[in-house]
């Protein structure tokens, strides 16, 4: 399976029952990568709900049959916004990892991401702490999400200089159309060619992960482009995409995911509906 399952709304706007149905369908289709975070979904609850649902579900399957990807560093201490994020100091990492393991009901995390950059903590402190978790086997691999090109460059230099654990995964906002120029998505950063080249140069085996690839159903026939992507060029692209989907008797979202996977990028998508899950993942199941 050339795509992962996003679980941000599990336990909040998506019920545990529906989440279990989607999770079970996903692994039945051959999926293995489950993507969550300790901050999911504080905007609809308190945070931690997604990890808790995934942890409850893990009790029903063979833990080693799936990869659990989770993220730390972005949980708001006031429960409201990223301005009060927990950060990535050693103390914050230790607390966050302990809590994530408890919610997930596991003794190891397959991939642990630094969710958003912590400019108040030296990169050295963050990455040495994370590397220690890898050395102890509590975390298998490390990832970053939403790091700027400059900070990513500094981190890559640090990793090489001190022989620390490599960046094996990197998550950025990415889809098949471009947003309007110079848009600010807040803590979310869009993937750029420069970021991708830097990551590949530092670690040729790095996996680039695309989040929000389907723009909340915008590509579907009844979907609406978010204002940030509402341009004449994108409207023309989507019209052609929908026509291709009709010709192939596929969902437009399935073609979007296939095209992203064909770029060598690993998309992560979320749904509350098993039927939509099967439609969306139909083409990425066939990629080899």
TrEMBL record:
One of its GO terms (cellular component) is cytosol. This is NADP-dependent oxidoreductase domain-containing protein. Residues 4-282 form the NADP-dependent oxidoreductase domain. InterPro entries: AKR_Detox_Biosynth, NAD(P)_OxRdtase_dom_sf, NADP_OxRdtase_dom. It comes from the Bacteria.
């Amino acid at each position: 399976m050339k795509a992962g399952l996003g679980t941000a709304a599990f336990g909040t706007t998506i019920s545990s029952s529906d989440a279990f149905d989607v999770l079970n369908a996903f692994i039945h289709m051959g999926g293995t990568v489950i993507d969550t975070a300790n901050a999911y979904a504080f905007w609809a609850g308190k945070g931690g709900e997604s990890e808790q649902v995934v942890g409850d579900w893990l009790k029903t399957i063979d833990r080693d049959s799936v990869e659990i990807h989770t993220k730390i560093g972005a949980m708001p201490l006031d429960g409201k916004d990223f301005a009060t994020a927990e950060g990535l100091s050693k103390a914050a990492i230790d607390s966050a990892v302990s809590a994530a393991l408890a919610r997930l009901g596991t003794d190891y995390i397959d991939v642990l991401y630094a969710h958003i950059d912590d400019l108040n903590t030296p990169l050295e402190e963050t990455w040495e702490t994370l590397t220690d978790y890898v050395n102890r086997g509590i975390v298998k691999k490390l990832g970053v999400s939403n790091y700027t090109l400059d900070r990513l460059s500094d981190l890559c230099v640090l990793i090489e200089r001190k022989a620390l654990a490599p960046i094996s995964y990197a998550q950025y906002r990415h889809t098949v159309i471009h947003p309007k120029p110079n848009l600010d998505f807040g803590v979310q950063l869009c993937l750029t060619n420069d970021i991708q080249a830097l990551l590949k140069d530092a670690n040729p085996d790095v996996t680039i992960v695309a989040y929000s690839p389907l723009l909340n159903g915008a590509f579907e026939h009844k979907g609406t482009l978010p204002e940030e992507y509402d341009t004449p060029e994108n409207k023309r692209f989507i019209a052609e995409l929908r026509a291709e989907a009709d010709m192939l008797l596929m969902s437009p979202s399935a073609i979007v995911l296939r095209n992203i996977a064909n770029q060598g990028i690993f998309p992560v998508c979320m749904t509350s509906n098993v039927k939509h899950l099967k439609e969306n993942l139909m083409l990425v199941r066939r990629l080899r």
